[in-house]
Structure formats: structure tokens, C-alpha cells
Amino acid sequence: MLKDDVLSLLSSAPSPLSGQAMSRTLGVSRAAVWKAMEALRAEGYEIGSRPGLGYRLLSAPDLLSPGELIRPEAAVGREVICLDVTDSTNNECKRRAAQGARSGLVVIAGEQTGGKGRRGRSFQSLSGKGLYLSVLLRPQCSLSQIQQLTAWCAVAVCRAVEGLGDLSCRIKWVNDPLLEGKKLCGILCELGVDDDGRLDYVVIGMGINISQSEADFGPELSPIATSLGQHMPQVPRRADVARALITELNALWESFPLQKGRYLEEYRRRCVTTGRQVRLVREGEVREAFAERINEDFTLHVRFPDGSEEDVFSGEASVRGLYGYA
Question: Do 12 and 152 lie in a common domain?
Fold first, then answer.
């Protein structure tokens, strides 16, 4: 919509833009540009204007709009869809993938009615409280490389979060970004194959907790979950978090899979699981082990009390700290 196009110009402009310049860039009349700006003002965007200089975006409400987030020249974010409510942003991405959507599509929702986590769990997706974002990718690489993507994404989330303020983000194996030992974000990777059984696409969904309080999480989740608002002087706008995340996902996709070494080194540095006693939960069986290292393929190497060793793959077991979630 023209409103999103005008917002995109205003959001990215380093200096005031004239109505004439915007109308020329967008190929519409100045009256149409003015009407779009009035629609943005009605939504809460503060747009200043000075004769002879033009218009400038002064402040923005906590809304999710493609105009603030789209990156036309980037590999990720060239198309951004913002929905008020959906069952799951991963599901919406998969539906659009089946319709031929291009790699780099980003789908964001203000609320999910059927948010999904790993191992079939549900993911709490309170309206307006978090960032629920999925990206569609169409990779040309091996399945073993694709299986490492969620670990790469955990690094991307940590980078995006730390870019928002004075925060230190760590990772619980395999893909749980943490703040002060509590889970900040859930990451879920799903694959799609074509009629011949070949990999067609990958959808990666991320749910970042932004403004939830302990009461929002409730007694079951509050001991293990946290939000950005609990660690920052001011709760960040969801659009600012989304912009930071899309930027890091684009950097990830431009690096994947050739720069694995750089992401692996950072993953190992951020991982809180290694060097600690953990519990492996697999098919109802719980075993204690010592997490020794992250392998080259992002699997977890553990040693059991009897001296036996094992490489644990994501998806086959859940790993918890012996004395807490992390």
C-alpha cells in the first residue's frame, strides 16, 4: 500500500524529504502522498514538517508495519507481511511457499493462536507482547548443513538483542537464547519437500518475548522464561526488535553455509551448556551427563558417569541443566 511506501521512505531518510521528492520516487501525486501521511498520523506516527525542508518521521507507535521493515535490496526482508493474528507464522510462511513465494519472505504477527515449539509443544504467543516472526528460505545445500540452521539463528537472535541495548545474550543448547539464565526466545525450523522428495524450502520461526511480565508467564513459565522488558530501562518497540532481527537474519543468510566457522566459534562462546552437568531427557528416560563440547556440526558431546560418551543431535533429546533450566 502507498502508506507503507511512504513510511518506508520516511523511516530510511537521513534528512527531511519533500512531498515532491516522495511523489516523484513513488510515481504518484503529491496529494496522494499527503493523504498517506495523514493516514499514518491517524495511526500514531508523528511526522514533522517544515516549509522548504520537507517531512521527517519523529516518532512511531508500537505497531508492526512493512513500511518500517521491508528491505527491497536484501536477501531477507525483500517482502514483509504483517498480520494482526494468525494461527502460526510458520504455517503462514509454508502456505505462501506452496504458492511460490520467493526466498527471503518474512511473516510477522501480533498474535498467534497456534504457536508451535520444538517436540510438538505449544508456544505462548500473547497479543502484542512478543515478536512472532518467520522467514522463508530456499537453500541450495546439503541436509546436514540445513540441520545446523537453528543454531546459526540462535546466534543471530543474540546479536539482534544485544544491538538493542546493554544486554548479554547466551545460548542453551541447542537453540534457546537466554537472558540471565532464562529463556528469551523460541526457535523452530521446519522443512518442505517437493513432489520428488527434494528439499524445497526451510521456514524458521522465532518468538521473542518483549513486554511480558512474570504474571503474564504465570507460575509454570516465570521461573524459566523472561522478556526484554524485564532487562531494559524501557520496553523496546516490536518494530525495532523486528528490524534488528531481520538485519541479522540477512547477514546470516549471506554467510550460510560458507562462514560456518565464524558462527560456530561464536556459538561455542555463547553456549552455557558446555562444561556443566546436564540431564538428557529422551523418550521418557532421564540420564545425567557432563556436557563436554560443541562439535563441528553443532551436536553436543556428552560423557556419562560410567565413562561412555555420546554425540547428542538436536531433536532427539531435550537437555536441561542439573540445577535449573540452563
Answer: no
pLDDT of residue 122: 57
Kindly report the backbone phi and psi dihedral angles of residue 193, in degrees, each rounded to the nearest multiple of 5, phi listed first: -120, 155
Do 42 and 34 meet the contact criterion of CB atoms below 8 Å apart?
Answer: no
The reply to whether 292 and 247 lie within a common domain is no
Domain-ending residue, one of 16, 32, 59: 59
Domain that holds residue 107: 66-270
Q: Which residues pair with 134 in a beta bridge?
A: 107, 205
- Specify whether 19 is located in the same domain as 89: no
Per-residue model confidence as pLDDT tens digits over 117-134: 655 555 667 788 999 999
Mean pLDDT for the chain overall: 93
Range list of H helices, the chain: 2-12, 19-26, 30-42, 66-69, 89-98, 143-146, 149-162, 214-221, 238-255, 260-270
User: Is the separation of the CB atoms in 91 and 65 below 8 Å?
Assistant: no
What is the per-residue pLDDT across 268-303, written as a single tens digit (0 to 9) for each? 999 999 999 999 998 889 999 999 999 999 999 999
Alpha-carbon gap, residue 96 to 91, rounded angstroms: 9
Torsion of CA 122, 124, 130, 131, to 10 degrees: 10
Q: What is the DSSP string of 190-224?
A: EEEE-TTS-EEEEEEEEEEE-S--HHHHHHHHTTT
pTM for the model = 0.92
117 half-sphere exposure, CB direction, 13 A CA radius: 13
